[in-house]
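step=predict obj=Lipoprotein signal peptidase n=151
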Amino acid sequence: MIFLIIFISIIILDQWTKKLAEKNLKSGESRPILNNIMRLTLHKNKGAALNLFENHSGFIKIVTAPTILFAIIYLLKIIKNKGFTLTKIAIAFIAGGGAGNLIDRIKKGYVVDFFYFNFKKCPIFNIADLFIIFGAILLQFLLLFKKTPID
């Protein structure tokens, strides 16, 4: 049950922060935060991660929808199993973040990104992206270093 709460909470947090960004920032506007280490910059991402395939948004929807659906189904399947707590958290992070971005793609035709670090070649990202990345890193760590199978 806690893993479904994590999944749903990620979607709610992601959608809420994107709504705030769209309400308070104009497209392309950039506001410094955290001593100008980070900026809030509204960007409508029509492509995939890092704005890849920007001119192929239909293709992105076709590929991401089944992928997110698979992650959700897998999460529901492993929730019943005892143990695998970190695996369940990782999958909940990935599925929640993916679902948050998929909601944008379906409703708007683009994903709202708004966080930007003032580093060279740093992509603009959102809360959903963070959870996808954290979940993927955790899952990779478990695959590499955990002695028991992930399932």
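step=describe
The mean pLDDT is 85.
step=end
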